[in-house]
Amino acid sequence: MPTIAVTRVIPEAGLALLRDAAEVRLWEDDLPPDAAALADLLRGCDGALTLLTDAIDGDVLDREPQLRVVSNFAVGYDNVDVPAATARGVAVCNTPDALTETTADFAFALLMAAARRVVEGADYVRAGKWQTWGPLLLRGHDLHHATLGVVGFGRIGREVAKRGRGFDMRVLAYDTHQDEAAARELGAEYRSLDDLLGAADFVTLHVALTDETRHLIGGRELGLMKPTAILVNAARGPVTDTDALVAALRDGTIAGAALDVTDPEPLPADHPLVSLPNALVVPHIASATYATRDKMAETAARNLLAVLRGERPPFIVNPEVLND
Ligand code: DGY
């Protein structure tokens, strides 16, 4: 039987599949293994089921030359050095389809919560401040008929666009690769990033983190946005320049931000983004539904087992390592 490392407790839907086919070495702590503990866990393993909190680079892979697959429990795989894995013939897999709609739902939930000040309202009631109905109390921004700017028009971005159309929003899209037919079908119009930022009432980020997208939204870009605009990030924290965002929220360059992801992650409790009234931060939970986390676990397990069996996995990032 092969030996597989699983770097955190994942839903049983995935663990059961792995246990049927392999000896499973499970990291049971709530917190991720540090580099030394990860090295211990991976020692002698044929496959690793990893999370976005595990850094898998060339050094890690060099220590375990028998490792054949790194199956990430996420659509994003910026925690894995894919060229290093490819150079060593290690397959890298991810879980894209499982979480598309769930993540889009949550990005939209963030957008609505920030626009209509849902969390501020709940905090107000909890703090015992609710004394009367007030014409000026906690006014927010309309979503309906507003302009939604979707940055990254892939699977998740398109699902967010679909939700925006359901609210009669005008949808603008930015991507380096343009699929005109998909945009037409969703009633979206492609724009340059600068044009989108200048026109949108809501800007929602759905790009993968790469060298090209790191700090895609910095001080200059925030400066192009409307002072009434809200930024949503359910992609990766470093796509936004955190210091520039804090400054833009403080000085009113933009109206608000709703963040599922931050840089750094986790965000320290004394970080300015935690206390700014116009920032809404949640702990990277966009894909966290029971059904979706089950699907992610199952997909990650199936990917991993397929590689070990010499079969083509359902989702592979570097198919060039397969000998099929
Ligand atoms: C991912 O899959 O990349 C998310 O960030 C976690 O679901």
Please provide a brief summary of the model:
With 324 residues, the chain is an alpha/beta fold. The chain has helices spanning 12-21, 35-42, 58-63, 82-87, 100-115, 118-126, 155-166, 180-185, 193-199, 219-224, 242-250, 272-275, 290-308; strands at residues 3-6, 23-26, 47-50, 69-72, 91-93, 147-151, 170-174, 188-190, 202-205, 230-233, 256-259, 279-281. The protein has two domains: 3-98 and 290-323, 3-Layer(aba) Sandwich (Rossmann fold); 100-281, Rossmann fold, CATH 3.40.50.720.
The count of strands amounts to: 12
CATH fold-level topology of the largest domain: Rossmann fold
Structure classification: alpha/beta
Distinct ligands, ions and cofactors found in the model = (2R)-2,3-dihydroxypropanoic acid
* Series of secondary-structure elements, N-terminal to C-terminal: EHEHEHEHEHHEHEHEHEHEHEHEH
The end-to-end distance, rounded to whole angstroms, is 23 Å
Q: What does the largest sheet look like?
A: 7 strands, parallel
Strand content: 5-15%
- CATH superfamily grouping of the largest domain: NAD(P)-binding Rossmann-like Domain
Looking across the biggest beta sheet, what order are the strands in? Answer: 8-7-6-9-10-11-12
Global geometry: globular
Mean model confidence by pLDDT: 98
Q: Into which percent range does the helicity of residues fall? A: 25-40%
Based on CA atoms alone, the radius of gyration comes out at: 21 Å
Number of domains: 2
Helical segment count: 13
- Poorly predicted regions are none
CATH class of the largest domain: Alpha Beta
Architecture of the largest domain in CATH?
3-Layer(aba) Sandwich
